[in-house]
Amino acid sequence: MTDPNHFSGRAADRRDALLRDQIAYNLRSPFYRRRFAELGVDPATVRTIADLDELPVFLRPQEHRALQERSLEADGHAFGDFLCADVRDVVSVSSTSGTTGTPILYASTKADVALTNETWERAFRFIGMRPGDGAVVGFGLSMYLAGIPLVRALETAGMRTVAVGAESGTVKLLRLIDIMRPRVLACTPSYAEHLIERSPEVLGRSAADLGIEILLCAGEPGAGLPAVRRKLSDGWGGARVHDILGGIHGVINVSCDAEEYQGMHVLSPDYAVTTQLVDPTTKERVEVTDGAIGERVKTALRWEAAPPFRYSVGDMYQVFTEPCACGLGAERIKVIGRVDDLLIVKGVKVYPSAVKDVAASFVPELSGELRIVLDQPPPRVVPPLCVTIEAGAGTPPSRYEELAGSFASAMHQRLSIRPKVTVVEAGTLPRASHKVQLLEVKTPQPDS
After folding, report:
1. To the nearest whole number, what is the mean pLDDT of the chain?
2. What is the pLDDT of residues 61-81, one digit of tens each?
3. Which DSSP letter does residue 139 get?
4. Which of 82, 313, 354, 445 has its CA 20 to 30 A from that of 260?
5. What is the rounded CA–CA span in Å between residue 185 and residue 235?
6. pLDDT(110) > 90
7. In what order do the strands lie in the sheet with 348-350?
8. Which helix (H) or strand (E) holds 274?
9. Distances in whole angstroms, Cα of residue 331 to Cα of each of 7, 266, 274, 289, 311
10. Is residue 2 predicted with pLDDT exceeding 80?
11. What is the pLDDT of residues 398-441, one digit of tens each?
């Protein structure tokens, strides 16, 4: 394989030139002209990728929402005044789910759609997909990146694409997998787990017998957690599990098939800057060395519609710079969680994804499904951390207390906290075809 992050001097110079061109283009927008002026920064002084690290974050989701509201009133569109293209050239719009507020809109021009298709195709090739492969899409078709944009990219790349979508329900999705016998299944890790559980009931046989060779997972960190990854691979008959992130703004990252998870390889550094980090508290630059952790800040290098420049959505990344076990020396990233999902228990920092990984290591005695129940919004947690976890299908209630103790001990050993654990009957916790919310914040009840 060719290392996609190997830059000769000429390639690095070309990347810097792309940045300068993108900045000049961005200055079409009132927002970027205003933001540079507010910061007292002359855009002409930002000459290289390294110069970006000296700039603060320009835009975050809450500010993005405010820009949308203002432009809707002032300009008749909801793309904010950092839209650089003519609104008539916007041909595709993706949006976040809106579970934490007004949905955030991401616009694409025809050129942006073509670029997105090309970056997705890089990921398909990287994980061994080829034209003619069957691919069933089990993401919600309305999903921000992995819905219609993924379907479009699969079709453009020549895949035999079945866009059933999670909206169709588990029964229909499993039946179509059984009929079509695709090589690839694309869905969230939690939904792939749910399909494993439901396959014997719906089809009368195991998901391992359905011929899936590649699981293309996105939307949540599960596929990057060793225990979850093993559970998915075993449940789907040895399928390779690949973690994918990106699909817009020139960003695409995908994990290789190394035996141990190595993070997601950055496949499009010529289209976007995706490995610059800041401290989530101070917002100061974090130097990127092997294993560095921080809040990710991205900058597009070839985007037309509303280009992100020093934009943070609040994701926490770990960046790896040493060569991967697969043989590539490319930069890789691992999603640790979200800044606003961080839990601090007696000074110990814990992300829900780490708790999920501990739970998956107890399968099949426990199902791996869990909820972290909080009395108040994160990050501060008054001990003990309360975790509700589901028993495995064949686990008798007489073992619940024992398993609660074992799980609490494993949490203490691996994460340095000892939670209060409640084990509930298999099937108690609701499943989701989209992202599973592992945190539940109790709403205070009024005094009677």
Report:
1. 92
2. 999 999 999 999 999 999 999
3. S
4. 313
5. 13
6. yes
7. 348-350, 343-345, 380-381
8. strand 272-278
9. 12, 6, 10, 10, 20
10. no
11. 999 999 999 999 999 999 999 999 999 999 998 766 677 889 99
At 259 the pLDDT is 87
User: Are 145 and 216 spatial neighbours (Cβ–Cβ below 8 Å)?
Assistant: no
User: Which amino acid, 360?
Assistant: A
Q: Which residues pair with 92 in a beta bridge?
A: 108
Give the pLDDT confidence score for residue 59 in this predicted structure: 96
- Provide the 3-class DSSP secondary structure of residue 417: coil
Apex CA 193: angle with CA 431 and CA 384, to 5°? 65
Question: What is the Cα–Cα distance from 397 to 393, expressed in whole angstroms?
Answer: 11
- For strand 315-320 and strand 332-338, is the pairing parallel, antiparallel, or unpaired? antiparallel
**Contacting residues for 413 by C-beta, under 8 A, at least 6 apart:** none
Q: What are phi and psi of 415, to 5 degrees?
A: -120, 0
User: What local confidence, expressed as pLDDT, does residue 99 receive?
Assistant: 63
User: In the prediction, which pLDDT does 306 show?
Assistant: 97
Question: What is the pLDDT averaged over residues 26-40?
Answer: 97
- Which of the 8 DSSP states describes residue 403? H
Q: Is the pLDDT assigned to residue 228 strictly greater than 60? A: yes
Q: With 70 as the cut, is the pLDDT of residue 95 above it?
A: yes
348-350 and 184-187 strand pairing: unpaired
The beta strand positions in 363-430, using DSSP E, are 366-374, 380-381, 386-391, 420-424
Tokens 């509700």 locate to 388
Long-range contacts of 43-50 (CB under 8 A, 24+ apart): 46/19, 46/20, 47/16, 47/19, 47/20, 48/16, 48/19, 49/12, 49/15, 49/16, 49/19, 49/273
Look up the pTM and report it: 0.87
Reference 267, options 58, 115, 435; nearest CA is 115
Domain boundaries, the chain: 343-441
| Neighbour-count burial for 351-372, b at 16+ CB within 10 Å, e otherwise | bbbbbbbbbbbbbeebbbbbbb
Classified by CATH at the fold level, domain 343-441 comes out as GMP Synthetase; Chain A, domain 3 (3.30.300)
Q: Do the beta carbons of residue 357 and residue 228 sit within 8 Å?
A: yes
Report helix angle 189-203 to 170-180, nearest 10. 80
Alpha-carbon 172 to chain mean position = 26
Residues paired with residue 123 on neighbouring β-strands, in sequence order = none
